[in-house]
From TrEMBL:
GO terms for biological process: D-gluconate metabolic process; pentose-phosphate shunt. It comes from Deinococcus sonorensis KR-87. Homodimer. Its EC number is 1.1.1.44. NADP(+) binds at residues 20-25, 43-45, 85-87, 113. This is 6-phosphogluconate dehydrogenase, decarboxylating. Residues 190-481 form the 6-phosphogluconate dehydrogenase C-terminal domain. Keywords: Gluconate utilization, NADP, Oxidoreductase, Pentose shunt. It catalyses: 6-phospho-D-gluconate + NADP(+) = D-ribulose 5-phosphate + CO2 + NADPH. GO terms for molecular function: NADP binding; phosphogluconate dehydrogenase (decarboxylating) activity. Pathway: Carbohydrate degradation; pentose phosphate pathway; D-ribulose 5-phosphate from D-glucose 6-phosphate (oxidative stage): step 3/3. The active site is at residues 194, 201. Catalyzes the oxidative decarboxylation of 6-phosphogluconate to ribulose 5-phosphate and CO(2), with concomitant reduction of NADP to NADPH.
Length: 494
């Protein structure tokens, strides 16, 4: 430190410091200041500090710093430093620079979209140095960061009391005033829950896009007409932020052409990796999350624009189908969308359950649903129903088994199946809708054809099998050809 202890005490007035003045960092700082907190701000490119302090931060309780010693010297003990920088190497670089300037009991917070194993590693490394580390998911985009995001902190539990007033003070709130922020769990639990949030977000967005495609392609509705349909849907059980903004998107006109702006946007979608991480995690722990994974693949196939254009001239689809009844089909698509959405959320919560057991976390799924109820991208009315389901049965294995959701699936599945059948016959691409139904049908099946799979595995690899007439956990091997031996390879995970 460059200051004496007396000098340091004189300037240590900031409740928290934030490093990184991109849009999210700036907006979080302004949010904190608006709630009465004094915030120190630093950016590696120091001209951004000047620009911020003399611009948007003017008149707020925001202190600019131009090097890290000055920045750390502005912070009250225990010092709380929040990193809002690009995930990956940049986080480690700043941690390495901060550690010599901090003291035992100080707190480093990573607020980026970090892969949760990195948070596990960093928390353990900081603990060895006497420091606390929090990995926190922040959802809501730039508007949420400014007005109230959903915040999902995890890591060093001992640090939570020091940051709780700040995080819960700036978070979005549900109708009863509950903040959309609570402690998630140890290690990488916070970033893990944010990762699954983003995986569900991928699925939700893809399903909404498929509903648009069905109404556009099958019924020939204009974007403005579909926007009106979405606005109506947003008044009912599909009420959500994503439905709301999609209605706005569909009615926006391009200033240059006067055409619907959505029609002028190239059909290729980007991604930053969190959806892929969710799919990889699901594969690692053996949790079926096909709809989330299909949403990731949907973005991948959208990126093959030139190949798709060329293929469209070679690969033939079915003949046009008769147009269905307009109002009936719109209602069927609405029901199919809601049923698919429930299946995708069921996959996400099932993944969190299985991964929590694997990592030794105790996750409160009702609390997580409330953290997602406001501020975040997937905020939706039906998250209240998810909380009710877990409040009623904390050991619930799958959301589909809760009475509200099982009733909805029974009520909506005829329309869901009809929509998918119509899409398949008409050659309309609906991977999320289809995989959601496949998940539902697989989960509700008492008997699946996996007996054939395991017989095949035992035939060519002596991987053994269990029998229907013997207790679980007993394994058997058959010499299928008469040429093999009696030695088995290994048991299997099921």
């Amino acid at each position: 430190m460059t200051q004496t202890r007396a000098d340091e005490q004189a300037v240590a007035t900031a409740d928290i410091g934030v490093i990184g003045l991109a849009v999210m960092g700036e907006n979080l700082i302004l949010n904190m200041a608006s709630k009465g907190f004094t915030v120190a701000a630093f950016n590696r490119t120091t001209s951004k500090v000047t620009e911020f302090v003399e611009g948007r931060a003017m008149g707020h309780t925001i202190l600019g710093a131009y090097d890290l010693p000055e920045f750390v010297g502005l912070l009250k003990r225990p010092r709380k430093v929040m990193l809002m920088v690009k995930a990956g190497a940049a986080v480690d670089t700043f941690i390495d620079m901060l550690v010599p300037l901090l003291e035992p009991g100080d707190i480093i917070i990573d607020g980026g979209n970090t892969y949760y194993p990195d948070t596990v590693r960093r928390e353990a490394a900081m603990r060895e140095k006497g420091l606390y580390f929090i990995g926190t998911g922040v959802s809501g985009g730039e508007e949420g960061a400014l007005t109230g995001p959903s915040i999902m902190p995890g890591g060093s539990r001992e640090a939570w009391p020091a940051v709780q007033p700040i995080f819960q003070g700036i978070a979005a709130r549900v109708a009863d005033g509950t903040p959309c922020c609570d402690w998630v769990g140890d290690g990488g639990a916070g970033h893990f829950v944010k990762m699954v949030h983003n995986g569900i977000e991928y699925a939700d967005m893809q399903m909404i896009a498929e509903a648009y495609s069905l109404l556009r392609g099958t019924l020939g509705l204009t974007p403005q007409e579909i926007g009106a349909v979405f606005t109506e849907w947003n008044r009912g059980e599909l009420n959500s932020y994503l439905i709301e903004i999609t209605a706005d998107i569909l009615t926006k006109l391009d200033e240059e052409t006067g055409q619907p702006l959505v029609e002028m946007i190239l059909d290729t979608a980007g991604q930053k990796g969190t959806g892929k991480w969710t799919s990889v995690e699901a594969l690692d722990v053996g949790s079926p999350a096909a709809t989330i994974t299909e949403a990731v693949y949907a973005r991948a196939i959208s990126a093959l624009k030139e190949e798709r254009v060329a293929a469209s001239r070679v690969l033939k689809g079915p003949l046009p189908q008769p147009a269905p009844d307009r109002e009936l089909f719109i209602e069927q698509v609405r029901r199919a969308l809601y049923a698919s959405k429930i299946a995708a959320y069921a996959q996400g919560f099932q993944l969190m359950d299985l991964s929590a057991r694997e990592n030794g976390w105790t996750l409160d799924f009702g609390s997580i649903a409330m953290m997602w109820r406001g501020g975040c991208i997937i905020r939706a009315q039906f998250l209240d129903r998810i909380k009710e389901a877990y409040d009623a049965q904390r050991s619930l294995n799958n959301l589909l088994l809760a009475p509200y959701f099982s009733d909805i699936m029974a009520e909506h599945q005829a329309a869901w199946r009809q929509v998918i059948a119509s899409a398949v016959l008409g050659g309309t691409w609906i991977p999320a809708f289809s995989s959601a139904l496949a998940y539902y049908d697989g989960y509700r099946s008492e008997r699946l054809p996996a007996n054939i799979l395991q017989a095949q595995r035992d035939y060519f690899g002596a991987h053994t099998y269990e029998r229907t007439d013997r207790p679980r956990g007993e394994f058997f091997h058959t010499n299928w050809t008469g040429r093999g031996g009696t030695t088995a390879s290994s048991t299997y995970n099921a």
